[in-house]
Amino acid sequence: MKTRYPAIAATAAVLLLAGCASGSTAAAPAPSASAGDAGAFPVSVENCDTTLTLEAAPERIVTIKSNTTELLLALGLGERIVGSAFLDGPLPASLADAGADLNVISDFVPGQEAVLALTPDFIYGGWESNFSAEGVGERAALTDLGIGSYVSPAACKGDAMPDPLTFETVFAEIDEAGALFGVPDAAAELVAEQEAELAALEPATGDTTALWYSSGTDTPYVGAGIGSPQLIMDAAGLTNIFADVQDTWTSAGWESVVAANPSVIVLVDATWNTADSKIANLKANAATAGLDAVVNDRYIVVPFAATEAGIRNVEAAGSIIDQLAALEAK
């Protein structure tokens, strides 16, 4: 599928970087994209079983979800973002200045009318489901309007789903975004920083079992074995009690959690489902109140926006390592 607006038509060389980068170090200030960083166009990529071709870098971009917004800010493209939506939480301190003037048009997936009013030439979505008739519009329909679209590859479904998600995939998206938006040098620099940070991590040793508790009360929604929760836990040295589930996230029964009796519980903190509310649920639930991690308050907290595939995954792994060390020191 080609987009009438910037059709990227020659294949961009996307570096699949298998390196490692350190996690708890704060990211450098977001660079500003410059003319000298402009990439070669046209460029073409395969994205979630859709061929995307652009003839020039997009100039009016709508971002959906925190991971896509934060990546563009980190690449110095804040001035090209005409609207953002469905953000998962506040920006990290390292990007607060770059994103100070973000035009947030919706706390959820925006409708087509709101998006088209911004006259975008490109929409960068965090999930495939963002692109629906009920959301910003289907990708083919957007193409007919001259609007390009791209989905974070980690969120692709079907045969295009990463299985499992790796840091190679996360870093490849940065490079691919650099090619698509005409800032390959900024992307290469960001990948190098992330690789260095990942390489500097010192994962926990031993067998520290963990529950990744994303949401839910009666039925918990937990991190499974092939998505970003597993990626982050692996980097931190935790053993996921649901690692054998062939999915990114999954619904589980509390009885399975009780049987596993994890050493620690990783709590995903979101404004609509806080870590504190999860702790209250765990203590109030007769089945989970006796878990060792609950009795001994062995909780690790990560912000929701850092838990989906993106530039904050290394940081999240580093934070988990630091929090675990603090728990062990008690």
From TrEMBL:
Residues 1-26 form the signal peptide. Residues 60-330 form the Fe/B12 periplasmic-binding domain. PROSITE patterns: FE_B12_PBP (PS50983), PROKAR_LIPOPROTEIN (PS51257). Keywords: Signal. Pfam families: Peripla_BP_2. InterPro entries: ABC_Transporter_SBP, ABC_transptr_periplasmic_BD, ABC_trnsptr_F420-0_sub-bd_pred. Belongs to the bacterial solute-binding protein 8 family. This is Putative F420-0 ABC transporter substrate-binding protein. It comes from Cryobacterium zongtaii.
